[in-house]
Amino acid sequence: MVRNSVYDAPPVIPSLNTLVALNKKLDMRLAYARGFRAPSLRELYFNFFDASHSITGNTHLKAEYSNSFNGSLTRHDIALSNLGLDLTLSGFYNVFSNLIEIGFNPEQPDVNSYINIGRSKTAGGSLQSNLRWKTLKGILGFSYTGRYDELAEGENPVNALPKYVWWPELSSNIIYSVPKAGTSFNLAYKLNGRKPAYEVTEQNGQQVLGLAKTSSYNLADFSVNKDIRKLATLSFGVKNLFNVTRITNTSSDTGGAHSTGGPVPVSYGRSFFLGLTFQWSKNLSYNK
């Protein structure tokens, strides 16, 4: 049950999850959920101004509503010689009404505010594999995601642009264990594909809709975990192996505090870490 004294929240927010075992090694999952989100106090009333931000609250925001659908098909224990393999194929489709985002305040062009986007959609699919061979485990996944914006339904030159913009992602995680030494090695990698987005610019006194794109980039982390007499685990490694800090951006919007033009910051860069985790437990038995 949902109760909100300001926004007309639905009395019940339904969701449905199903699992169908098609056979011993093949599962199908289907799910639906209705979503509701009222604006937060920060989005309604708070103002945030510093050297790089100029954001004001918006008391006229409407609540978000959404409908989400997703499904997956999983094949377990595919025998490939000495390899164990699981495969999962999944897809999703989401529709949002009054999605809350940060946009320009038409009354103050140099200040950003929270706005409602009348209608927005996301859709996509993914394929993930889990491999096992002796003490080696690997996860490899690929996803393709698209986003629709109602701006794509406008008049020319909007109609010359695709109604959905798409971008790929590739991720992997490899874990190699040495049980006798109580040591494991972990390498995580992710490829973020070139990501497009709609942008509105002003040309000759008129607003023109175009597509801006951020470049693709690679991220990787490496770590080593060493067990110490079952009481502690020593961890050390490197984050952001490729030292990615900024990526290029084709947007021509360079005005405003939250402009999309210029290089886009991603991370502070390569870093190293060292940690020690203790785990202590004691089993007590009582004689009756």
For the record, what CATH class applies?
Mainly Beta
CATH architecture: Beta Barrel
Helix content: under 10%
| CATH fold assignment | Maltoporin, Chain A
**Biggest pleated-sheet summary:** 13 strands, mixed
Calculate the mean pLDDT score and round it: 84
What structural category do the secondary elements indicate? mainly beta
Write down how many β-strands occur, each being a DSSP E stretch of 2 or more residues.
17
Give the N-to-C terminal Cα separation.
46 Å
How would you name the CATH homologous superfamily? Answer: TonB-dependent receptor, beta-barrel domain
Extract low-pLDDT stretches: 254-260
What is the 3D form? globular
Q: How many distinct folded domains?
A: 1
- Per DSSP, the total helix count is 1
- The helix/strand series, from N terminus to C terminus, equals EEHEEEEEEEEEEEEEEE
Radius of gyration: 24 Å
Q: How much strand content do the residues show?
A: over 45%
